[in-house]
Protein 1
Amino acid sequence: NAGVMQNPRHLVRRRGQEARLRCSPMKGHSHVYWYRQLPEEGLKFMVYLQKENIIDESGMPKERFSAEFPKEGPSILRIQQVVRGDSAAYFCASSLERDGAYEQYFGPGTRLTVT
Amino acid sequence: AQTVTQSQPEMSVQEAETVTLSCTYDTSESDYYLFWYKQPPSRQMILVIRQEAYKQQNATENRFSVNFQKAAKSFSLKISDSQLGDAAMYFCAYEANSKLTFGKGITLSVRP
């Protein structure tokens, strides 16, 4: 059973370009989460999605950021008109409910560098 | 809002010895879960152990165990018989309503 897959692993964008980060959850998992990790910091929650639905986007910046998890295909985190402050590692996690807890399994992350 | 505090930025342990990593949290929820994640230099987040708040018994996973003090809102991780492969960043995390809140992490080094 393959784990959570993210691609690309590294992404370089110039200021003003768009970044698209992809996440394929573990087989059978229908919940996907995106987190951002700045240098020397813990992960910060961005958004929680189920198939075709955004459940909680309380951690998403109000502008330039969007996320989707379509019926078919991977979840996409999209950052429009990137700025240097968007440089970070972006992690995706997926989960099943187990004993009332949503135990989250993480992908390897995408490191975004904005030049 | 929930907060998770890891006040020690770094710790060091001798190989084969025991080390305890501290974590405190703040919440008004009564039903929640607590986790410790390990992040080695590869940056992959690896789930180490979890604790249900409604359980009084402390969770254990092989060499890893927790000391969960619900009234004090404390959740420390004990690593026994430390190995070189345990060197990593360790993050304490709180989960309620499907959302994880992480502490800032602690860097653990293991001396051979």
Protein 2
Amino acid sequence: GENVEQHPSTLSVQEGDSAVIKCTYSDSASNYFPWYKQELGKGPQLIIDIRSNVGEKKDQRIAVTLNKTAKHFSLHITETQPEDSAVYFCAASRRWGKFQFGAGTQVVVTP
Amino acid sequence: GAGVSQSPSNKVTEKGKDVELRCDPISGHTALYWYRQSLGQGLEFLIYFQGNSAPDKSGLPSDRFSAERTGGSVSTLTIQRTQQEDSAVYLCASSLGLRGDTQYFGPGTRLTVL
């Protein structure tokens, strides 16, 4: 089955700096890669996703890149703000199937 | 409602009791998922419903766990003879299923077994 590894487990950045979270996956048939943000006491919220026919996708300060050959994908947050502090999860799936989630990254943005 | 809803938001029970957790998916979503999140941990897949197909139960940790989905909408996750290790947040998600794969999560039910 699919296995997703996520690094780092914690990430502390100064406000205004960039944050990068990396994930690798094992199933070459996986073709959908979402990223979720989870704030304390809430369910995960989708922030951006990418499909296997696209190499990069950007939405304002957030971008995701995908390298199918190496089977890894990354989340990039630029100009970080205190409200970006949360736990971020990557996931991988085949279409219309269950997700395999990474273990999560605790991001702390310090003013 | 606009999103996935779950009830109760918090549940405290005694070891050995049965509990039922409810999930109302987004209207029109044919796929429904249950996950478990232990304190400070990632999301552990439990069960997946897609339309009228047989559910994928491959993530259920023991036969004390079961889930139903009635009328293709509301789902109930039942845990029998609860144990302290069942304490966790139980998250439900739904998606358009065969028409789309993005999963939208509810706020979760925090279960505490004393």
